[in-house]
Amino acid sequence: MSFDASYNEKELNAVGTRPVRPDGVDKVTGRARYGADYNMPGQLVARVLRSPHAHARILRIDTSQAEALKGVKAVVTAADLPDLTDGDASLFAILDNCMARTKALYDGHAVAAVAAIDVHVARKALKLIEVDYEVLPHVVDVDLAMAPDAPVLDETIITKGVTPAPDAPSNVFAHSEFGHGDVAAGFAKADEIVERTFKTEQTHQGYIEPHACVASCNSDGSAEMWVCTQGPFVYRQVCADLLGLEVSKLKVTSSEIGGGFGGKTHVWAEPVALALSRKAGRPVKLVMSRNEVFRASGPTSATSIDVKIGATKDGTITAAEATLRYTSGPYPDTWAETGAMTAFACYDLENVKTVGIEVLVNRPKVAAYRAPSAPMAAFAVESAIDSLAHKIGIDAVDFRIKNAAREGTRSSYGPVYGPIGIGPTLEAAKAHAHMSAPLGKNQGRGMACGFWFNFGGQTCTDLNISADGTVTLSVGTVDVGGSRASLSMIAAEELGIAYEDVKAGVADTASLGYNDMTDGSRGTFSSSMATISAARNAIAVMKQRAALMWDIPVEDIEWKDGQAHAVGASHDNLAPLSVKDIAAKAGNTGGPIAGHSELVADGAGVSFGTHICDVEVDPETGATRVIRYTVIQDAGKAVHPAYVEGQYQGGAAQGIGWALNEEYIYGEDGRLQNAGFLDYRIPVCSDLPMIDTQILEIPNPNHPYGVRGVGETSIVPPLAAVANAVSDAVGVRMTHVPISPPRILAALKAQR
Amino acid sequence: MTTIAVSTTINGDDVEYLCHADESLLDVLRNRLGLMGSKEGCGTGDCGACSTMLDGRIVCSCLVLGAEAEGREIETIEGMAHGHDLHPLQTKFLEHAALQCGICTPGFLMAAKALLDVNPDPTEEEIRFWLAGNLCRCTGYDKIVRAVQDAAAEMRGDAA
């Protein structure tokens, strides 16, 4: 059935309220089952052997002693995962990352795995596997990896996107370019120009739940997997491709997910668990340790970014330019391209140019992390904007308002914007009490803006009406932060019934059609669109059933407030039929009542936010405390405002951690030195103040209720907001995050 | 490897089990007793997802040996509600949306209960420092702190 997704302003009853989430009681009583909370009969325990070297050729792997150990049921190496990728480079990278084939490319790269009857035997077996390595020179720093004398990770890589093409291989996979106008002409018109280089360090998503799965391959070619993932359908496809399984014979069930933030959109050890199960003929449980999570999953890119922005004295930006160098780990990817697209997306620019440069290094394969690539670009651009405002002598908020993108602006990455929220978030920031609150000694204030695209994508839902009139809603997007609540609310809204009468659940891959994963802030946006469509289809069925029950034409029936009404003078004496009334008679009027929807959720509205941050810096130690923080963001329409606030607060906290503390620290030997939560310090409760939020609602014209994605944008501004605040407090521009105490002390010392 | 016989009390019930000498209390709870509400986020005492009460004191059960539980009293998240009656902290966590993914929630609830046992009227700062051993990556802690404050007020009988 056709579905009109365009925005239609109307009064909403369920949407906008704050009910308790349907999965809540299970989660506060310990009953919710996550990746590691599932077991199968006869299950084996898996452990993975990992490279201790940053870069090494694998000369020989001898697994014979491990295989001979009593209790070991299978040992696998790359030989057990033959290359079925058929020239698909990105799929090959996933395969090679799961299990190193000819070279170990980073500290922690998997080289072999065992499945045994218990963890003691598995650990003992790992020690019996002999690997001969030829250690090779390594490089982990983004700028050093681009140097002419850098060790080259992959001799087949000739930089793409450069003319003429280079004649020698390097660690630079590709250049990409965005923009419009003439930046040279624009800079010539500028009265003031700021030009600086910024660096950001590599961070991890830091989900508290390590990767975990239970894989079971059967003798008949079918297989099952229980796994913590943001996308069971995507995991199914990738695992089936890598193992040569028929897609429909692999059933993937997503567990409750203990945080993902993008890190659980990529497969890691799941194909290895399946390979072990296939070889052993028994189910295999594989749970990563925290050390493995840090060394071999996640992280985001480390970056080095040059920014140049020019403006006239009246505060008009005349040109903006950035070159963004992003690490992608040891495989080609397009993270810098995304950074280059987002860098200047907040502004209305006549002349703009960005270049993204993808750089291979001996670090783990980069994974998406909440608005991937955007926070680093925003850090560089929003820091430079702040400097330029100071240089011109104009208020930093006013400067941004003057240059903010608006409806009709051609974005720096190409498309022309519809109605957007950057201007309103800036106006709200200007008017916010936080902006004018007094500051004390050693304190500073900063603000910054951020942008994220938001995704839509393939989506389907099933909405089934039970005999008692209650509703089960099956969705295919994993619930990472309350979407079962928001989607139940949407179904209740559309059907006109109580929230309590709807129960939303996440379906496994055998129970529902394909869904893209929960990424790009698409969970509530796309599944709500499919839910609205499914509900409308169910209403159409219920109108037909009511017509049968009343024996009147279906054209004479109107759906209002959760009931079928007979319209027209001849039907005046017919009392309305509720969902419950119609459901009760379903067996006699044509059988079960359901609404389905399969669609591509187009038109995800872009999202903007503005953050304000106050810090206090101890000049003796260089330690920084965030003392006040405000997030202002456009939600389009906040379906469940408490969980929208939660997304704003959570993203801000992650960004504050990135800005002040978090970084991967490598030794000279290329080994990760802080692969644990003690040394890789994410913000704890005592590090943070309350995080104030302000939700703006500028309806997305492409969603019936105006919903935009809300999950990711909140991590984009904090790096710059904190950096601008620290720079304000100490009087020195901070250009390298995390702004750790040693970096602040070094900056203060250099200033003296 | 030989095993050790342990007699202990868990959530008020007598429990006996066998465990290896190097097995953590967390592994015993999860793998031998089916009490999987306690979570392993790190296994090194840094994240607090396995927070458990041992003789009235909050501990990381990943840092306690199963054998050390002999003759002692353990409380886990599974014992926090009485039947269908949720503890006020559990109710307030739901009302305040103080959880997103929920993996850290059992540990936070156990730690917060331990706080309110000794300090029924904590300041925001006291709550923040008491809960500093429990990591949450989703919420930014704001709603967790508010839920604990609200639960404390309700348990004291303060007017809302």
Automatic annotation (TrEMBL), chain A:
One annotated GO molecular function is: iron ion binding
**This protein's record includes keyword Secreted:** no
- InterPro entries in the record: Ald_Oxase/Xan_DH_a/b, Ald_Oxase/Xan_DH_a/b_sf, Ald_Oxase/xanthine_DH-like, AldOxase/xan_DH_MoCoBD1, AldOxase/xan_DH_MoCoBD2, AldOxase/xan_DH_Mopterin-bd_sf
Q: Which residues form a coiled coil?
A: none
Q: At the top level of its lineage, which domain of life is listed? A: Bacteria
Its transmembrane ranges are none
Pfam families on file: Ald_Xan_dh_C, MoCoBD_1, MoCoBD_2
What keywords are annotated for this sequence in UniProt? Molybdenum, Oxidoreductase
**Stretches assigned to the Aldehyde oxidase/xanthine dehydrogenase a/b hammerhead domain:** 29-137
Tell me the segments the record calls region Disordered.
1-23
Q: From the Swiss-Prot or TrEMBL record, give the protein name.
A: Oxidoreductase
What's the source species for this entry? Thalassorhabdomicrobium marinisediminis
Automatic annotation (TrEMBL), chain B:
> What is the protein name for this chain?
Ferredoxin
**Alphabetized GO MF terms:** 2 iron, 2 sulfur cluster binding; metal ion binding; oxidoreductase activity
Annotated 2Fe-2S ferredoxin-type domain residues? 4-80
Q: Does the keyword Repeat apply?
A: no
Q: Which PANTHER family match?
A: OXIDOREDUCTASE WITH IRON-SULFUR SUBUNIT (PTHR44379:SF5)
* UniProt keyword list: 2Fe-2S, Iron, Iron-sulfur, Metal-binding, Oxidoreductase
The root-end lineage is: Bacteria, Pseudomonadati, Pseudomonadota, Alphaproteobacteria, Rhodobacterales
